[in-house]
Specification:
The protein is α/β, with parallel strands linked by helices. It has helices at about 15-20, 30-45, 55-65, 80-90, 110-115, 135-145, 200-205, 210-215, 235-245, 250-265, 270, 300-310, 325-330, 340-345, 360-375; strands at about 50, 75, 95-100, 120-125, 150, 160, 165, 170-175, 190-195, 285, 290-295, 315-320, 335, 350.
């Protein structure tokens, strides 16, 4: 069976985890956390990065730092994972779902302004498949209306928009290091902060509402409870696991891109024949090969396609059920405007296996199975 995903593993993870254990420093913000923070800040030119327990909690920190409250509204796509919306709901604010572009599956920047009301406080830009939203337009809209911009870059580590790393363009950026992502610590994420004025509040929020971070830096002689917060920092063992992959970030990225490009070239004939549609990468975007998807004719054909691949020992998945049609989406949010593409495009999309060090024979088997489906 060809797995849909295999978590990345470079070979040094267990050695580094053992080092963390041997150092008797396995709680958060130990030596490996500091290594990861420094690498992420330098690589992506971010003034402040904080590891979190997940991409979800990075999003929660971003919404809390944006001072969202009951009665506020946040514009976001419905075609995204539940975490994007739950981070809004937890503050008491209302998710306002807006339609997507059919080419990139990202929030349609041309429809955002119409969804803005006097209660709108933020825009959440989700970079689907590691391909950037049209950020210049989104930032312009936000600037003119006084809105915060939160980047859900869970899938966007190592991707760029006009040369800028995803996650560093809005007020806050959120990475995920879940086992399904390009770089993994099992469960984990990171918050990227654009404005230094938000640093101290973020540290307090992440450290259970205490000023422990400034204490550890020797800036105060004791620490105490100063504000609301939670425990958003991961174990240094998780950071040690991640560090092994950040050391090889470029090699992992290049490896994934080779598989992505092989798929893309191999399916051009099917796309030109009108049998399926391939991903679109705008000229201003550099992607990270987070996923490779194709679009079938409709839901019925997609179902048959997934079943056919499974019969050939290949696992493929669809992605996502639009949030506005989910029970919680109906209860907590609303869809603004016409659903022209969100549902219809999500019904056609299917993701193919793609992971670090995927065997060439497995890639070949997937390519052959896709072609055989259409011959059949």
């Amino acid at each position: 069976m060809i797995s849909f995903n295999v978590p990345p593993f470079t070979g040094k993870e267990l050695e580094y985890v053992k080092q963390a254990v041997d150092n008797h420093k396995i709680c958060g913000d130990g030596p490996f956390s500091k290594k990861c923070h420094a690498w992420l800040e330098e690589r992506f030119h971010s003034q402040k990065v904080l590891l979190t327990t997940s991409g979800t909690t990075a999003l929660e920190m971003a919404t809390l730092l944006s001072n969202l409250k009951k009665g506020d509204e946040v514009i976001l796509p419905s075609f995204t994972f539940s975490s994007t919306a739950t981070s809004v709901v937890l503050t008491g604010a209302t998710p306002v779902f807006s339609d997507i572009r059919p080419d990139t599956m990202n929030l349609d920047e041309k429809r955002i302004e119409d969804a803005i009301t006097p209660r709108t406080r933020a825009i959440m830009a989700v970079h689907y498949a590691g391909v950037a939203c049209e950020m210049d337009t989104i930032l312009d809209i936000a600037d003119r209306h006084g809105l915060m911009v939160i980047e859900d870059a869970a899938q966007g580590v190592m991707s760029t928009y006009k040369g800028k790393a995803l996650g560093t363009i809005g007020n806050f950026g959120c990475f995920s290091f879940h086992e399904t992502k390009n770089y993994s610590m099992g469960e984990g994420g990171a918050l990227l902060i654009r404005d230094p004025k938000d640093n101290e509040k973020a540290e307090i929020l992440r450290e259970k509402g205490t000023n422990r971070s400034v204490f550890l830096r020797g800036q105060v002689d004791k620490y105490t409870w100063v504000d609301y917060g939670s425990s958003y920092l991961p174990s240094d063992m998780n950071a040690a696991y991640l560090w092994a992959q950040l050391e090889m970030a470029d090699a992992i990225n290049e490896n994934r891109l080779r598989t992505w490009n092989r798929y893309h070239e191999s399916f051009r004939d099917l796309a030109e024949a009108g049998r399926l549609e391939l991903p679109v990468i705008p000229a201003e975007c550099v992607h990270n090969a987070h996923m490779y998807y194709v679009k079938l004719k409709d839901l019925e054909e997609r179902t048959a396609f997934i079943s056919f691949l499974k019969s050939r020992g290949i696992l493929s998945v669809f992605h996502y059920v639009p949030l506005h049609s989910a029970p919680a989406g109906e209860r907590f949010g609303r869809f603004h405007g016409e659903d022209r593409y969100t549902t219809s495009e999500s019904n056609r999309l299917v993701r193919l296996p793609l992971y670090y060090n995927m065997a060439e024979k497995d890639t070949t088997a997937v390519i052959e199975a896709v072609h055989d489906f259409f011959k059949k």
